[in-house]
User: What shape does this take?
Amino acid sequence: MQAKNIFNQMSPYTPGKQIEDVKKEYNLTRIVKLASNENPFGFSDNVKQAIVDLTKNLEIYPDGYATELRQLLSDRLEVDPDQLVFGCGSDEIVDIICRTYLESGTNTIIAKPTFPQYKHNALIQGAEVKEVPLINGYHDLQGMLDQVDEQTKIIWLCTPNNPTGCMINSTSLSTFMQQCPSDILVVVDEAYYEYITADNAPNTIAALKDYTNLIVLRTFSKAYGLAGLRIGYGVANVVVSNALNVARGPFNTTKVAQKSAIIALQDEEFLHYSLEETKKNKADLLSFFDEMELKYYDSETNFVFVTLPVSGDSLFEHLLSKGFIIRSGEALGHPNGVRITIGKKEDMKELQEHIRTFLTVDSKEN
Ligand SMILES: *Cc1c(COP(=O)(O)O)cnc(C)c1O
Assistant: This one.
């Protein structure tokens, strides 16, 4: 069987190293995973307590409309319930958007580097992907607008951007939206929304009133710590959300995920704790980088991309042998750097010592 031609140039997603594999390979008992921006503080205890109950009646299909979660979020965000679309992670919303709007002969514009799923799914739909290099980790919004032509259907803005962590501010986003033709869908992926501390962040949900061509993506995978349950959502004008709801599978989010998301949204204490710890541990990591004279991108997220005097792969390998999994920039299109998720305080201290040793001793021996 021959898949579509484009599959010849594509391969399945290679995830960050799995904990069990690293334990075996390096004969370690404890692993700290700082590779995929998951929440090191876990998730709400209330979800943990509810989960046994949630597994009742698994023989029954979930509510395909996710009525209860939809109602709660529409109240919170002050949007119409029908403006929401839920997915098996926001990853699935990316796929649904591509299936709904892209086909051969169309094109889409993304930053480089950015979250790889935009390109991946666009290529599968036969669209051309135009990549516009970041400037100091930030989207080149004017450069992206300059790439617009008659065939452009979607522009992807990952903000804060993965893997750099840089955020598009309120003024820049307004200017961009005013200039962008209204028949081009603008996807603003806010997977790290909860981590933003800058005071000039855009209010993208409020902007939905002004722009019918805007969709905002959010997820329960990062700050809410529910990556393993797979649930995320998009918010858009009903013309867009209705189309996406046609394209999505009828039962694409599980009842355990829907209910856990509701409980997680109501546990403000856990969210607050995670955000505060992350903020402190990030500030500490950044002062360590300053002391080491390492340059890093501005980050409004729970990760930092730092550039190195050595290859990202070499630091990655070194830390792996010590039981720390980070993400080398190699796979992210940025060889001399690594992306590190902000972890727990003690783990980050130990990580810093390993990095210090590697850069001051090991690199000179090599
Ligand atoms: C993690 C991440 C997602 C995917 O989140 P899921 O909801 O787990 O699919 C989407 N966008 C960006 C930029 C991410 O970093």
Summary: Residues 37, 89-91, 115, 158, 162, 189, 191, 219, 221-222, 227, 232 surround pyridoxal-5'-phosphate (CB under 6 Å). The longest helix spans residues 268-291.
